[in-house]
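Follow-up to my earlier ticket, as requested here are the two runs.
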Amino acid sequence: MYKLLALDMDGTLLDNNQKISKENIEAIQKAKELGVKVVLTTGRAIGGIEEYLKELDLISEDNYSVTCSGALILNNTKKEIIECNNISHDEFKFTFNLAEELNITLNIYSNDGILVPSHSIFSHFDSVANNLPLKIADFNSLDEETVINKITLINEDLSIAEQLSTFFPSICLKDIHINANQKFDKDLFEDVSNLPIELLENFTILKTSPYTLEVLNKNCNKGTGVKRMAEELGIKQEEIICIGDSGNDKHMIEYAGLGVAMGNAFTEIKEIADYVTYTNEENGVAHIIQKFILNEQLGMAD
């Protein structure tokens, strides 16, 4: 019997307009009524999922979220941090210097919002999606006490602005001035294994889109986040369903008792999943709840 349902947000629970469908909401409520613990497990900060937590009636001291792709686990009232795995200042400096060498940019998820050394298209979308302020900071003299939950490496050019808008179609950005990247290499993140070995060995590197990589503390990912959450709740590994679609969902899908890939998931995510459901536009989450939770616990035929 499954007791914990870990759900990615973008491309999984949310449709292409950043909404939770009526079908997904109703299925989640039925799972909750059967005692299943629902945990939103996302690359977003907590500010980027608060409206959805309210919509799903998950804001209480005994409901939790895995945020920043596993770097920060906290209860949904934000009063209790279960685990926090930050990036050190020295690790940040290494990543910043590497980004400059690769002619790309980056942003930082911090307590103060999303920090950037200069404007980027992705960071503006990221700021709106996460309901976090976007702040320009001098990364050459960043305060060593700055809390860094997550770094995003961003390989972008003006040419990908339209592609980015397909990931965030409900977000409209106007009057954003971005300089063209004359050294833009669209294939830079095609094969992550070709990146410098120091980056791959010292951090958790997660490919979330063709032009973004998440950089986390080496000790965390969504899989470790779900594992820690399950320990907190006294739930066994085989009692967990994890559903996702992109590179930062890989570890939790591998860890789960039932690892599920969305129909719109990356090919490599589908290959490691136990089951592939419908797309995020076809209520794939509701399908999993019906098939593996409601049918089983209510003794219904498949």
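Run two:
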Amino acid sequence: MPELPEMETFRTILSNQLKGRPITQVEINREKSINLNPSLFTARVRGAMITDIRRRAKHLIFQLNNGYALLLHLMLGGWMYIGNDEDNPERTKQVVLSFGDRKLYFIGLRLGYLHLLTAAQLKEKLEELGPEPLDPNFTEKIFLEHISKKRGTLKAVLIDQKFIAGIGNCYSDEICWQARLQPERKASELTKDQVRLLFQAIQPILTRGIEHGGYMENPTYKGDQKTGGYNHHLLVYDREGQPCRRCGTRIQKTEIASRKSFSCPDCQK
């Protein structure tokens, strides 16, 4: 599932290529991927211009010049591709937005969605999300206060979108590795120094993920050399049996609350 670095990568790419361009056509191939009657959805979206593309947690927000916003969540298996009739993946496209001769294909939205919302609806939809971990206002003091109330594993705490927005299965493991902590450790068992190490690992890991284009493998457009670059820089996630980049011990794969998790049995305490 795309996490904060992947969605931030998409935001940058889509902003560069589609921001300021009017939507000339709308194609809906799966009604469950949207939240309105297809005719009404199309009528409100067609002709509108994308004035801004923002990210909130694992969502993208396409702000339209008619006051509405398109809220995207790719969920598991969802991705996007910018192309045209001759250049597009041989996959089922749930929604297609045309920008003249350029098209944005939404693929794999069987669990994800693209909803058209008013400003009030958008605020309500996102209001339960926790703080953005890359926000300057997300301080160590706030982190210490919030995590002191948690009783679950570090894995469960880090992927809780009401606690911190945008972290998922991959980067929770990467953060724990950076902090030298096992993801199955209980948050309530950490010392203040260990909590500090955990906090200090969050922003560098997410920033690193963004710099390398996230870990999603599918390109966003023809010739895309950025998307998925983090696959070559993973510290621990999906590296079962490979040597730890810090101590050389083989990485182990475990399961925590039905989620796969990767860690070093030696240098993560």
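The only thing I checked on run two: The first helix runs from residue 4 to 18. Let me know what else you need.
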